[in-house]
Each structure stands twice: as structure tokens, then as C-alpha cells.
Design a protein that fits this description.
By secondary structure, the protein is an alpha/beta fold. The chain has helices spanning 105-119, 151-159, 167-177, 192-206, 235-249, 265-273, 283-291, 308-311, 317-325, 346-352, 386-399, 413-425, 439-450, 484-491, 515-524, 531-538, 592-595; strands at 130-133, 182-185, 228-231, 256-259, 278-281, 302-306, 336-341, 360-364, 374-380, 405-409, 430-433, 456-459, 472-477, 501-507. The chain binds one DNA strand through residues 233-235, 260-262, 265, 282-288, 291, 310, 315-316, 319, 411-413, 434-435, 460-462, 464, 481-482, 486.
Length: 609
DNA sequence: AAAAAAT
């Protein structure tokens, strides 16, 4: 797992990085696949040995941490609260141990470091517009010190090298410490995982020791009753959140368990049996666990949905609704509910409000902040020419001599396989991740990509959201998605933590329905829109005129849908007016600010994660 | 139409 270095609060004054691991893989970039570690698709599944992941770096304590006085097993203050059985957490494995660069980061370290140190620009985020609505919004804080999160958590914040809270953290943490429900929209890499984890962990530490759960109703002695549930839409994202949450919980006594499909359930059952305060899960596996009565939601005090709009879209909504509304989860108002996403279409906000009570809507950022760091290009490329065009891009990348990662999005799983093997045949070290690969393959692909061993990853939308992959310099939309929100999430895999990034899209007639929203988004992000794309966008059949609802029409605009009813409808000349809205800092009354002027309006945020 | 998510 990567260190949470995506945060803007990531230290500028970081202590020197630990020495690079001695384990080195041959530099993979220049001359084709690194044969020692890379397994091309046609050789996979032949020999387990050849596909075995590289030896892990030896476990290593983060420098100066374990030896630090006070980092001992007996935290003081409320951190010392004994947990059920209190067993063995003095031997809790150090979640910071893998914070060192992954093997394979080694030879790229110089290149990478350059990127690491150039991009973080705190000042760029100082005047980031923030909008809140709802009753009695607790004021934001400027520093972690202002928030009483407790000694143990504060120490972990230091270990994570967070020096000050990011904008979303400054606002969201006080809101959620005040016990309020929250719908939050925040930018790429802005530390939103921490924004919901800190209050949850702190709340669990302060809260009453878990009451003896009500047995009965099918509950056995082996039924786990977590206090907090964090749902996410993909397995890899759940793993990532789990890794982060474990770091934040280190030596607090708060136990974090992850449960997702595609992996043997037995290990997860064992983890649950050892005790769980925070359960991170994907919906399918959680439903399974609930049906087996190995998990009960009756003690849930905190519910967080990451990528909340995704969790409530057509594919997921029934399952999520079942978990939240039809199991033994306490109702809104009893539990505290927090929804986080970048994109938040209004119809999804409306649906989400079923899960919330008296909530606060929070939007952080706008066009011209984060996305300006992502240079967006669109090129007209016929289907038949895509491969050679991609090869040109990859050659150009290679010629820069920099070791960087390139993430290539395609529309279908088959397309991912076939592009991957074509790249490999042509000497490019590529791997792939999609839902038809088994979980081991998925995890290996991601590791191999992150470490730089396979610096090209071909992916479906399974990798579009939330994944924090440092050093992705280039996102290629080999196939454009049909939904502008997906585009926003995809390009948000680069340009994270204040670093710059590049996103290239291949556009052709098959993508005409995206033309308008894409042109708008680019315009709002101060990107140059090719004239041909503007012409596409102006074609009436592609939304140039009418109210183009989905496929772009309802992109999140930094607005609380509750303030919406009176805002629109008048001056509704521009069909897309509901698409805009984030920019006006003057509160929500000023509907007139949104109607006019065609494209250049105060824009919708774009790389909101 | 496709992707994801349980076995």
C-alpha cells in the first residue's frame, strides 16, 4: 500500500526517505518487458512460480517511529481504553512498516522524487472555494491541533506526516465530530479517507465500550458487531481504505477489518471473530456475511459511503439500500452517516438524502484549482487507428527518459485483454486489471504497476475511482466513457496531491454523445478545446441545444440539490445550467449567476474525487 | 452497452 502521500498536507519537510530497498528489478521502461518479473498474458496461469509476486521488501519500521518514546503499547489518556478482551494489540503489526518505497520504486526514485517535490503547492489551495449548506454548520479548523482527536490519533497523524489538514479535512472533521450527517464533495487526492476516518476512530475511542450486543434474532456468539461501516465500490478501493484506516488506528485499540469478494472468506471470518470496530467492505461480500449472521449492523454508529454516487447508481443501489435500510442497521439520526464523492449528480443526491438526517452539504474546490494541474488533450482517432496512436504516445513518453506510469482506460474487459497482449507483443511492459481477472491477478497487476515493474496498466472502470497510485503521469482514455463523471474520475488518477498530470483522450464518432459535456468540462478547466470538438458539441443532436440530462447533463456542480428548486427553471435558456454551479462563492441565492454566458461560466469542478 | 459486486 502506498503511504497516504496524496494529501496536500503531506509534509514538505519530510524526513529523508528511508534508503531504497536493495532489491532491484531491472529498469523496465526502455527496452520492453522486464522479463524477470513480468509475465505476459499468454504465459499466465501456466506456472504459479513464474507468476509469483516479487519478494517483498524486508519489513521495515518507519524510521524513528518505533523507537520513539511514547509509541509503546500502552497509550495514555482515552487511548488507553481497554477493548474487548484487549488481546494482543500490543503485538499489533506495524502498519507503517511498508511505508518505504515498493521494490521497483528504487531505480525510479530519482525521477519520481522530482515529481514528488515539485508539485505540492499549498498556496494554490489556500483560496479554494468552499461551500456549505445546512443548518448550524460547525466552523472549520485551521490545524489538527485545534481538534481534540486524542494523543494516539495525533501521533498517527504525525507518523503519516500530515502537517496540516487539507481543505476537506478542515471542514468535514469538525462537522462530523459534532455528530452531524454529511454529504461531502472533495477533490482528487485531498485526503478524504482521513476526513471520514479520523472522526470515526476518535468517536470509537471516546464512545462507550461496545455494549454487549443483543443476542437473539439469529445472532450467534460468532456474530461480529462493528461500530462503523465503510462501504466502497471496488475491492481494491476497500483494501486501500483498510490500509489507510489501519495506519490511523495504530495503537488506538480500534480494530479495522476488511471484507471483499474474490478472496477466501475464511480469513475474513477469522479477522471478524477476533473483533472489529470498523468494517471496510464491498457490498456483495457484506451481504453474504450478514446472511450468514457473521456480521450484525445493530451496533453501527458510523456509516460512511465512499464514492457515494457510485454506490447509489443503478448497479449498486439495490444492494446498498438493502444493507442500509433492510438489515439491522440503526436508522438515520441514530447512526451518523457520511457520504463522500467527487461527482454527485442531483438525482443521486436526492436518493442519498434517504440515508441522511439534517445533513450538511459540503463542497470543496472548483475549476481552476485541481484540474488545472491535469493537462487534458483530446485527439480525433478512428477506432482502427487507436493502437498505432497509442504506440506513438508511449514512444514519446519513453523518449522523455523519465520513468513514469501510464494508465490506459478501455471500455470492455475483452478490450483490456486484447490491448494488453498487443502491447506486450510490441515490447511494451503492460498488464491489465478488470473484473474478469481473478482477484490474485488483479492485485498482482496493481502492485506490479504501482512498483513500476509494469509501467503500463490497461484498465476498465474498475480502476477509475478512488485508487491512489502515485506517479501516474499519463491517463489515456483509449476508449472514452459514456458518462462525463466517469471521465472525471478516470483522469483524476493523475495530477494528484498537487502534482501535474496529463490526460489524453481518443475521440471519434462513437463518442459524440460525450462531446458537449467534454467540451464544457475542458473549457471550465481552462483547457484548450479543439475546434472540431466544439463543432461536435454544437450539433443539436448531441446536446448542443436541449436539456441534455444524462450522459453529462447532471454532472456535479458543487451544489446542494436542496437549494435547487427555486434556483433553476428561470432563465433556463441554457440546457446545461444544472450542470454548472460550483463556482459562485456567494452562496446559493444567486441563481442568476448560472444562467448566462455559455461555456465560460463559473464552472463545475472537474477532478473531484 | 458495459462495468462492478457473492458463491
Amino acid at each position: 500500500m502506498a503511504t497516504p502521500r496524496t494529501s496536500w498536507a503531506d509534509v514538505a519537510d519530510a524526513e529523508p526517505a528511508p534508503p531504497p530497498p536493495v532489491t532491484t528489478a531491472p529498469a523496465p521502461a526502455a527496452n520492453g518487458p522486464a522479463r524477470s518479473s513480468y509475465v505476459p498474458p499468454h504465459l499466465r496461469n501456466r506456472s504459479a512460480a513464474s507468476a509469483a509476486p516479487p519478494a517483498a521488501a524486508p519489513p521495515r519500521a518507519a524510521p524513528g517511529l518505533l523507537s520513539r518514546p511514547g509509541a509503546g503499547p500502552a497509550p495514555t489518556g482515552f487511548g488507553a481504553r481497554p477493548r474487548g478482551g484487549g488481546r494482543g494489540w500490543d503485538r499489533e503489526p506495524d502498519p507503517f512498516a511498508d511505508s518505504a518505497p515498493a521494490p521497483g520504486d528504487a531505480e525510479g526514485a530519482a525521477d519520481f522524487e522530482e515529481h514528488q517535490n515539485t508539485g505540492i503547492n499549498f498556496d494554490a489551495y489556500e483560496d479554494i472555494p468552499v461551500e456549505t449548506s445546512g443548518r448550524e454548520v460547525p466552523p472549520p479548523v485551521a490545524t489538527f491541533a485545534e481538534i481534540d482527536l486524542g494523543d494516539a490519533l495525533n501521533q498517527n497523524i504525525r507518523r503519516c506526516r500530515y502537517v496540516r489538514p487539507t481543505p476537506v479535512q478542515r471542514h468535514a472533521i469538525p462537522i462530523s465530530l459534532a455528530g452531524r450527517d454529511l454529504m461531502a464533495c472533495a477533490q482528487t487526492g485531498s485526503g478524504k479517507t482521513a476526513a471520514f476516518c479520523f472522526p470515526i476512530i476518535s468517536g470509537i475511542m471516546r464512545g462507550p465500550p461496545a455494549a454487549r450486543p443483543q443476542r437473539g434474532g439469529g445472532m450467534g456468539m460468532r456474530t461480529a458487531c462493528p461500530s462503523a461501516l465503510i462501504l466502497s465500490p471496488t475491492r481494491e478501493l476497500s483494501m486501500q481504505i483498510h490500509d489507510e484506516a489501519r495506519k490511523f488506528s495504530y495503537q488506538t485499540g480500534v480494530r479495522v477489518v476488511v471484507a471483499y469478494g474474490g478472496a477466501p472468506i475464511t480469513g475474513q471470518l477469522r479477522d471478524l471473530e477476533r473483533g472489529v470496530d470498523i468494517l471496510v467492505a464491498t457490498p456483495g461480500r457484506l451481504v453474504d456475511l450478514l446472511e450468514r449472521a457473521r456480521v450484525s449492523l445493530q451496533s453501527i454508529r458510523y456509516l460512511a459511503l465512499d464514492e457515494a454516487d457510485r454506490m447509489l447508481d443503478m448497479g449498486f443501489e439495490p444492494q446498498v439500500r438493502r444493507i442500509v435500510e433492510q438489515m439491522d442497521m440503526p436508522p438515520p439520526g441514530v447512526r451518523q452517516t457520511m457520504l463522500f464523492s467527487a461527482t454527485f449528480p442531483k438525482e443521486i443526491q436526492r436518493m442519498a438524502s434517504d440515508f441522511l438526517e439534517n445533513y450538511i452539504f459540503l463542497a470543496v474546490g472548483r475549476v481552476g484549482s485541481s484540474t488545472d494541474l491535469i493537462a487534458q488533450r483530446v485527439e480525433f482517432v478512428q477506432e482502427a487507428d487507436k493502437r498505432s496512436h497509442l504506440m506513438d504516445l508511449l514512444h514519446a513518453q519513453r523518449d522523455t527518459g523519465k520513468q513514469t506510469l501510464t494508465l490506459v482506460f478501455v471500455e470492455t474487459k475483452r478490450g483490456a485483454d486484447s490491448l494488453e497482449s498487443w502491447l506486450c507483443m510490441n515490447g511494451f511492459p503492460a498488464t491489465s486489471i478488470h473484473g474478469d481477472r481473478n482477484q490474485q491477478e488483479r492485485e498482482y497487476a496493481l502492485r506490479s504497476f504501482k512498483s513500476g515493474q509494469t509501467p503500463i496498466l490497461v484498465a476498465t472502470d474498475v480502476a477509475a475511482r478512488g485508487l491512489d497510485i502515485p506517479h501516474v503521469a499519463h491517463v489515456v482514455n483509449f476508449d472514452l466513457p459514456n458518462d462525463i463523471d466517469d471521465y472525471v474520475h478516470r483522469i483524476g488518477r493523475t495530477g494528484r496531491a498537487g502534482k501535474s498530470g496529463l490526460a489524453t483522450a481518443f475521440f471519434n464518432d462513437n463518442n459524440s454523445s460525450l462531446a458537449r459535456s467534454l467540451a464544457e468540462l475542458m473549457q471550465e478547466s481552462n483547457q484548450e478545446v479543439p475546434a472540431w470538438l466544439s463543432r461536435y458539441a454544437a450539433r443539436p443532436s448531441y446536446g448542443g441545444g436541449g436539456r441534455n440530462r444524462r450522459s453529462g447533463g447532471s454532472h456535479f456542480g458543487g451544489r446542494d440539490f436542496r437549494n435547487d428548486s427555486s434556483s433553476f427553471g428561470k432563465g433556463g435558456s441554457r440546457g446545461g445550467s444544472d450542470y454548472y454551479g460550483g463556482g459562485s462563492s456567494g452562496g446559493y441565492g444567486g441563481s442568476s449567476a448560472y444562467g448566462g454566458g455559455g461555456y465560460g461560466g463559473a464552472g463545475a469542478p472537474s477532478a473531484w474525487d
